[in-house]
Amino acid sequence: MRVRIQGGRVIDPGSGRDEVADVLLEDGRVVAVGRGLESSEAEVIDASGSWVTPGFIDLHTHLREPGLEYKEDIASGGRAAVAGGFTTIACMANTDPVNDDPSVTDYILDQAKQDAPGKVLPIAAATKGLEGKVMTEMSALVDAGAVAFSDDGRTIMDSGIQRRVLEYSRLVGKPVIVHAEDRTLCGDGVVNEGPVSTRLGLPGNPAVAETVLVARDIQLAELAGAHVHIAHVSTAGAVDLIRDARARGVHVTAEVTPHHLTLTDEATLGFDTNTKMAPPLRSARDLQACLEGLADGTIDAIATDHAPHAVHEKEVEFTEAPPGILGLETGFAVVLELVRSGGLTPSQLVAALTSGPAAVLGLPVGRLEPGAPGDVLVIDPERRWTYDPSKGFSKSRNSPWAGQELVGRVETSFVDARLVYHADRGVLMP
Ligand code: DOR
């Protein structure tokens, strides 16, 4: 089957392209990108007025399967992903059972093959049961298909163990993804420590809880010669530490979420539990520093931290609610606002969703060149739509953008040159 996506603005930072062109897909791959491409018997998609980009890559998704399918499963999360333009997603290990054993990694990959329209890459736990004590068998997990290691929300507090995790990760050639929160400093903090936590009368989670851990793990990665990836950076201090470390050649990469780029702790003033996440929303200064870090290349990727939780779990007191919000279906439209406000160029934005995350994991996706996998999006950057989580693909509803009008929408998603999503027809595969 051949498809010609015709006359769109092809934004492909991985190959330095931003121009009106056609993209030809065949046999699962991109076969040509250029102006006025001819091809007989191709299905033609008119993309004039639209953006054409590589499929997005999310480095940080919680799919909740196995074990927590009442929040999400691989089928529902996989559908939400392609609807939001994420044709490749890396899923976190905090399932039940935890993905700390090759049998769980195998299970996720088998289910994904059957149920998910896009590509699912399992991130394995760094320690057994996410307990921060005994390392997982990294080599066996990599053989099973793990692309990185992370204890995510359960930060490894024992620096000696973290050192060993980093040393072994280097031997197996995969990054360690760090949720940088010093648990002794966060305590039971549920919002950013500062004027907002004072006004709310809620326990604060200080910025230094993040920066202390980022500083530690940069030093440990440097010592081990390992690759550390800092998840969901939320503080100005962390951005500075990462920038300095990169300048001296430490292998540190980083991601930032759509919510930390667009919302501040002021959003929590209404006690809405859909503004509670870990790390918490921070100050306007932190937000600006994260945006600058993304624009200057200190931060490699925008990652959603899609964290589904059921309605009954979120409709409780702020202090009791689990942290986390949905991100796959709204992520692109939310960050597109940063282009309209002048914070990012279209090319910087698309890089943070494609070539940036692909480079973090060394993936063959994220660019549109002959021979590359046919993972392609057609995006209408002007389309207005109102987000209603109850009509979305996720099983959960926990979003601060529920009911809001958003601008910019993925119109079609192709995975391996197959149409898997169309905005008006829904998810079409598997
Ligand atoms: O907000 C969050 N939710 N942060 C995490 O680190 C974990 C995640 C979850 O699993 O719900």
Q: Brief description of this entry?
A:
The chain is an alpha/beta fold. The protein is built from 14 helices and 19 strands.
What does this structure look like?
The chain has helices at residues 74-83, 102-115, 138-144, 159-172, 183-186, 195-200, 207-224, 236-247, 258-262, 284-295, 311-314, 331-340, 346-353, 355-361; strands spanning 2-12, 17-26, 29-34, 43-46, 51-54, 56-61, 86-91, 119-124, 148-149, 176-178, 191-192, 204-205, 228-230, 252-256, 301-302, 376-386, 405-415, 418-422, 426-427. With 430 residues, the chain is an alpha/beta fold. The chain folds into two domains: 2-52 and 372-399 and 406-424, Urease, subunit C, domain 1; 55-361, Alpha-Beta Barrel (TIM Barrel), CATH 3.20.20. The strands form four sheets. Strands 1, 2, 3, 4, 5, 16, 17, 18 and 19 form a nine-stranded mixed beta sheet that branches. Strands 6-7-8-9 form a four-stranded parallel beta sheet, sandwiched between helices. Strand 6, helix 1 (74-83) and strand 7 form a beta-alpha-beta unit. Helix 2 runs parallel beside helix 3, helix 4 (159-172) packs across helix 7 and helix 8 runs parallel beside helix 10. The radius of gyration is 20 Å and the shape is globular. The two termini are 17 Å apart. The chain binds (4S)-2,6-dioxohexahydropyrimidine-4-carboxylic acid.
